Amino acid sequence: MVVEVGSVEIGRVRMQYSTREDLLGETVISGKSQAAALVYHRDDLQRVDSFFLMAGHGGGKQTARVKLHRYHQGHEACLWLATYLSSNPISIVSSSSLAKEMLKDHDAIFANHNPPIAALVIAYGGNDILWNPLGPDWRMMRKVLVRDLMSNTSLDACYNLRRQEIQQMMEEKTRIGVEFRKMIGELVILLGKTNISDIFPILAPLDLQGIERKAKVVFTWADTILDSVINERLKMEAGGEKRSKDDLESKDFLEIFLEIKQQEDGKAALSMRQLKALLLDIISAGTDTTTTTLEWAFAEMMQNPNIMRKVQEELGKVVGMSNKVEESHISMLPYLNAVVKETLRLHPAISLLIPHCPSQSCTIGQFTIPKGANVFLNVWKIHRDPEAWEDPSEFLPERFLRDNNGYDYMGNNFNYLPFGSGRRICPGISLAERMSMYMLATLLHSFEWKLLENAELDLSDEFGLMLKKRIPLVITPTPRLSKVELYK
Ligand code: HEM
């Protein structure tokens, strides 16, 4: 239940709240002064998350336009404390016009992230791409990732590996250990948790929620694995051994990285620490985002069986019932491509992006965002804006098939930003696109899918860094191709 329109004083902060729909629009907090806001996530607010935010110090009058839910009222004491102690103001941008001002007109100012404590621990002191500030190190690492790994030539060179992995998946022989998946899951959870130590640095030495301690465990585990894999590879190469058959197509990212290091003739651009940070970025930023997107795509298609049928018909025509899906088929599957785009519209994997942090005070719209603020870009909200999208809550892949709809993943249309926009746009788009299309195509071409008997389809999400399904989807496959060899 939502409280009535009104206002409340918390310490020196006056909060205005409303049930009016217009307040779902901007929730930008004036930066010069103290202010506090509560973030809602969904239109119905029945399951809104207790995510409280505040703007920084300073005197004067302040207003935070927010929508307040009874559920949040328990946080008032906390908010009061926050307004006196918090060092990081927080703002939320929920409209495409302000998103454009932020990530296009003032992109250089907003192109940094404020690393939380968990990120500093896990990502080699924030020396990876994601948390590095804009500067020569970030530029160099991003260039290595985009130019040397994400180019079509490099991705083609790794195709054989992806093919083998998909085959393993079909035969249910997964090479990724349970422990590995568990640790990556834990890493994503730790990065997404609101850490009281980040909000009140004064409390950081106490590590009240144990997040720093847990992050150290994950870091030690990941670092040990990366060290052993890299050392093993270096030893093999020093001994003149090839990792697998002498085949260019079975190269992996590590092999490409090590080649880059060797080409530098001792003047390695990438240090070993940066190389490990980059590998960890690829694993952490690339794994859960892609699998979460696949799970949502399946959930939406289970809800809309006619859409699944259309995808399977397209696959039947393009691939044929006597063939396996290959990555080369992807460009010939426009309907499946539209399904992935629509999935990322309704369920953007990183729904508030990674908070952007302005390097100087900057005015966007009528709001001044102070230097050092954490600015959340509410992509979830922008993707459901009825001004921009017809029937915004409906899963309608066809909207992406209309002529000149102009929606790609490159962040040029500010109504559609599943990968962000500007300097910090996701550098893994080409891999994400290939992997999600290839995996979906293979699974849908090879099997019919059914919910477990008596199971109910649930489409609600759980808020965190990653927008995951609240209840994991469990569905069962039945082979639909005629020849058993196609499953080997
Ligand atoms: C469906 C899959 C994916 C989605 C939806 C996604 C989305 C995003 C988003 C929204 C951001 C943050 C942009 C911002 O804060 O402005 C981001 C950053 C990033 N992503 Fe992805 N991503 C995906 C897959 C991948 C893959 C496969 C890789 C690995 C190659 C990757 C690597 C990164 C890195 C390194 C960054 C940080 C970039 C920087 O700060 O300069 N992502 N991604």
TrEMBL record:
Family annotation (PROSITE patterns): CYTOCHROME_P450 (PS00086)
Cofactor: heme
Keywords attached to this entry: Heme, Iron, Metal-binding, Monooxygenase, Oxidoreductase
Xref: InterPro entries: Cyt_P450, Cyt_P450_CS, Cyt_P450_E_grp-I, Cyt_P450_sf
Name of the protein this chain belongs to: Cytochrome P450
A GO molecular-function descriptor: heme binding
Taxonomic source organism: Protea cynaroides
Residues bound to heme: C426
